[in-house]
Design goal:
With about 500 residues, this protein is mainly beta. The chain has five helices and 31 strands.
Amino acid sequence: MPTRRTVLSAAAVTAGTVAFTGVALKPMLDRPDGKAPADVPVADAVSANAIAIEKFKLAMPVPPTLTPYSTFDGVDRYVMTMRKAKKEIIPGIQTDVLTYNGQFPGPVIRAKQNRAVQVLQFNGLDDPTSVHLHGGSVTPENDGGPMDTIAPSDFRFYDYPNKQSHASLWFHDHAHHVESEHVYRGLTGTYLLTDEVEQALPLPSGQYDIPIQIRDAAFDDAGQLVYKMNDFRGRQTVLANGKAYPYFQVAARKYRFRIVDSSNLRSFTLQLADHSEIIQIGSDGGLLTKPFPTNSIPLSPGERADIVIDFSRYPVGSSVVLENTNLGGGTADTLGQVLRFDIVRTASDSSSVPATLRTLPALPTPTAQRTIEMRMDESGAPDAPAYIDNKVYDPNRIDQSVKYGASEVWTIKNVNTFLPHNFHMHLVQFRILSRNGQAPGPAEAGLKDTVWLMPGDEVKVQATFDTYKGTYLYHCHLLDHSAMGMMATYKIS
């Protein structure tokens, strides 16, 4: 077990500092179609064309997989340092970012069910931080709550028991009122949990299993990230694994891509430029029960899509672009292209996508029902608040009391006229029962921890609270909204 002295000595090699200006809490006032509602003032957007960016100039990196420094006693132990770094996001320019271990986005932890992971997180920044394992089933003290922070130049251990089934998780900062800027500047990483069910399948693996974080960003004329609260329309440069409009070389065979939307506010709808088939095999909480062939993958902030693309249908020497058709607040030139796949070689391929991926148990009879309303002030006032059930977040208040072992149906409503939201619940993976009175589509038929709600939407979900007792959060995962108060606490006892 490392001591504080050894940890600080190791972390000092890579620790950096960064200072932030205050956060002005203003709402996002863009409609889903990207237009501002009439007679409502909107914060000035940062110019998305402050610097010209040549597309498909940089290679998309694969985030490195961490190696544990210790596997003693059956626990995989890792060290991460949150620090400032410079990265080439735009060709030829070094941009200041925040990182885990100097990586933008952060590194990958690959974990196994029933094998514990411990991560020592050192905070080399000037602000407090809190590391949340998004989608993880962990005890309250390891959940990375917004008030449970790591002071600058301090560290803490996070213990992840990995008792849940396989899932493509991710981790990010959650320190209240600064999480929005911290995540925007780079404090995100990937956590891939596997189990025997997943490992038994002949899906693409190894070098053909690629995590991708997609997001938007704004840059000034010097190529530096511009952070402005609620700058939805100004962030019109698309990044994939930390590069603006990159290319990625592939073989003419099947690949598995674990995609997470790590944006603060922006949703994407992904498709291949030739509209050819994408097979979605999983979502937030792991594999679907059966694959879903489609040509369109929608994602809101925090959601994940696990997909397979077969590049054997393309000749070597050709390319195909992964596009985004959700252009809210932007144009096809700025937001319409995500990355380009270049087919550069042949390769053998023994992988396949089985007709059945997993089974999910029948849902138990619900023991309780609740209704949750999400709403933001749409007046345009500088300090306009955001609410859950007409209450602004108070860390000292328990908003819902849940009996341990209960299985509950929560009806989530977005009661806003213009503003989209999404709903994320800590600790549990839930099942979507209905969306606006209709059964969920194939992409939402698996386990979920984040769900998208357009204005007026109503989504019913069922969650079972049978793992840990204590207090946990539920909130909008458009991070500006949660920072403005759209967050609440439930207690399991």
